[in-house]
Structure formats: structure tokens, C-alpha cells
Write a structure and sequence with these properties.
This protein has 13 helices and eleven strands. The chain is α+β, with helices and mostly antiparallel strands. It has a six-stranded mixed sheet with strand order 5-6-4-3-2-11, sandwiched between helices. Strands 7-8-10 form a three-stranded antiparallel sheet, with no helix packed on it. A two-stranded antiparallel ribbon has the order 1-9. The two termini are 35 Å apart.
Length: 360
């Protein structure tokens, strides 16, 4: 997978970036399909999956999301209930279609809106880099919703990477499997020095591939030992109380920083030579709601929804001072106009079109 220069600024929330790659130009992608017969919504507790894939594929993806949500809440001891605002996932049958609604600088994002959270993936590559990014971003959503104080960025990103490789197998859920791409990046650049990882400030320039790979490997390593896991939690609690990272580390961890760096290197070498350290959770230990509703989505409605996606992407790119924002606004305008053409009395589409024209 072709990648852009990875020496990028780590951007603060609300826009969370994950995994850089080169994307096709917006102008090269075909117009989005608007045939109402092609679009379905599969609705489950907490999720709405919109897509122009076969119903069985959308149904399977929705079930995977519900299971993953249950696993994340179980493993992280998240106590918040599902938000009344749904997570809406838009799944496109081809990469070209999906690229019209994805940022050029990242594989995927989760947009926060007034009426929910939106994300986009492609459906023609079920094996799963884009699904991995979706699960990574969704883990951020769950973790951030349950905490009043932010996690340190390395742990936040590393835990999301760690959990996003979760998969179901027979009657077990496997957590913490090796991430071949991250191991390859660690073989190329080596792990970051932990003092640099822990002390990195927002806005610092960093090799993001090396950063994500080191954060993943460290969380994986810390999770292999009950003692290290307990020390990690003590460290995080001290950070929440406002202690500097070095003082919190020295007071929480038994190994010194140098010893932890060395044991991390040994753990990475173990994984790179084919070693495994998977965590298994019985399906019976996870409570998964089973209610699923499937409905066709009218062409006017999906045009309105995709127009909204374009606007959210335009705002995000404007915040990053990217020139592509204007193209996204033009795309939103065309989609809202399509919605009104298909349904002249569509008041929300008319209001959105008026806002879009004013924004231009």
C-alpha cells in the first residue's frame, strides 16, 4: 500500500488520524451511486450501517461491530451506555466510490456531529486495513466517552491499535494478535526511545508509522504481564492527577526506563520471529444485543446523507488549511441538489443546500 511522507504533525482531537496512504484524486472518482434499490441500512443497538453492498455483507459487518463494541467495553471496563446518537457507517462497494468521502491524508476518520458519529470504509476489500482503521477509531470513541481526563496519546493510540486487531474464532474472541505491518515498521526503523514517546507533546513532528508501531508494541508488551499492567494503571492515574510523566513513571514502574526499553526490544524480537501472545475471551463472557433491523434507503435520503459527509470532510480539511475543502463543498452542493430533484419537498436537503451555498 503506497504511503505518503510520514513526518507529520500529530493533530489533536476532534479529528483523529490513523494510517497515512496515497489516495486517488477526488476528480478521478466516479459519481456516487444513487439508485435507491442499491442502498440499505442495517440498524443495530448503537450502529447504523448504510451501504450498497449485498444485504448479507452489511448484516455481517453490523454484527462484527456489535461484537467488537461488546469486547472493547468488556476489556476496558467501560461503564457508559450506548449513546442515543448512533454511529453511522457508510460502506461503499468500491474504493473509487469511498474515496469521494474519505480524506486524502488518512485511511479513515470518525466524524462527530450534532446527531451522531459518521465513518466511511470501502467494501471491495473485506480483508481489512480499512476495517482495522474503523475499529481503531471506534475504540477512541468508546474510550473518550468514558473518561473525563484524557489518556496520554501514546497509550490512547497504542491501546486502540492493540484492540483493533481483535477477531472472532469459533467460540473464542482473540485479542492482541500480532500486527504484521507494525512489526515491519519496527524492523525498518526500530522502536522510538521511550523517553521520546512518553514526553512527546501535541504538535510535535514525528514519523507516524514508527510512533504508532511503538505505541502498539508497548501496550502489547505491558499487557502480557499482570504486574506490568497494574503498574501501567498506576502510572495513568498519576498522570490524571497532573504529575509529570517522568515522576509518574518512576513512582509507578518497577523496571527502570532503560530496563523497560530493553524488555520492549526483546518482546518485539519475539513477535518478529513468529512468537505469539494472544489473549482469548470466551464468547459466552460477552453480552451482545441481537436486535437487527434492515430497511431500504431511498435515493433522496442517501444523497442527503452523502452530502452531509462531504460537508463534514470539507470542514475538517478547512481546519487543516487544505485546498481540497472547496471541492468537497461543491460535491455536497451537487448531492443536496440531487436529493431535492428526487424529492422536491425534502426540507432538510433544502436547508443544507442553502447553508452550503452560503459557505461557498
Amino acid at each position: 500500500m503506497a504511503q505518503k511522507d510520514t513526518a507529520r504533525v500529530i493533530a489533536p482531537p476532534p479529528l483523529i488520524l490513523a494510517g497515512l496512504l496515497g489516495c486517488a484524486s477526488l476528480h478521478d472518482a466516479p459519481a456516487p451511486p444513487l439508485d435507491s434499490a442499491d442502498w440499505l441500512e442495517v440498524r443495530t443497538p448503537g450502529f447504523s450501517v448504510y451501504g450498497n453492498l449485498p444485504e448479507e455483507d452489511l448484516h455481517q459487518l453490523a454484527q462484527e461491530l456489535v461484537l467488537f463494541d461488546a469486547v472493547v467495553r468488556k476489556v476496558t471496563d467501560t461503564r457508559i451506555a450506548h449513546s442515543r446518537l448512533p454511529v453511522r457507517l457508510f460502506v461503499f462497494r468500491s474504493r473509487d466510490e469511498a474515496l469521494r468521502f474519505m480524506p486524502d491524508y488518512a485511511d479513515g476518520v470518525l466524524y462527530g456531529t450534532l446527531d451522531g458519529y459518521d465513518s466511511v470504509i470501502e467494501g471491495d476489500d473485506p480483508d481489512v486495513w480499512t476495517r482495522h482503521v474503523l475499529l481503531h477509531e471506534y475504540t477512541h470513541y468508546v474510550l473518550h466517552g468514558d473518561r473525563k481526563s484524557p489518556l496520554p496519546r501514546w497509550y490512547d493510540e497504542g491501546l486502540c491499535e492493540f484492540l483493533s486487531y481483535t477477531h472472532a474464532r469459533d467460540d473464542a474472541i482473540v485479542i492482541g494478535r500480532s500486527a504484521p505491518m507494525r512489526l515491519e515498521q519496527l524492523a525498518r526503523w526500530g522502536p522510538m526511545p521511550l523517553a521520546e514517546l512518553f514526553g512527546l507533546e501535541d504538535g510535535a513532528r514525528v514519523n507516524l508509522n514508527r510512533y504508532y508501531a511503538t505505541a502498539w508494541a508497548l501496550v502489547h508488551h505491558l499487557s502480557t504481564s499482570k504486574a506490568l499492567n497494574a503498574q501501567t494503571q498506576a502510572y495513568l492515574e498519576r498522570l490524571v492527577r497532573g504529575e509529570p510523566w517522568r515522576a509518574a513513571f518512576d513512582a509507578s514502574f518497577e523496571p527502570s526506563l532503560e530496563e523497560l526499553q530493553a524488555s520492549l526490544a526483546r518482546h518485539i524480537a519475539f513477535l518478529q520471529t513468529g512468537g505469539r501472545f494472544d489473549f482469548h475471551l470466551a464468547r459466552s463472557k460477552v453480552s451482545v444485543p441481537g436486535d437487527v433491523e434492515v430497511r431500504p434507503v431511498a435515493a433522496a435520503e442517501i444523497a442527503y446523507q452523502l452530502g452531509g459527509l462531504s460537508l463534514r470532510l470539507a470542514r475538517a480539511e478547512a481546519e487543516l488549511e487544505l485546498e481540497s475543502g472547496l471541492e468537497r463543498i461543491r460535491q455536497a452542493q451537487a448531492l443536496f441538489e440531487d436529493a431535492i430533484r428526487l424529492r422536491p419537498d425534502y426540507a432538510r436537503a433544502r436547508a443544507a443546500l442553502a447553508w452550503t451555498l452560503a459557505a461557498r
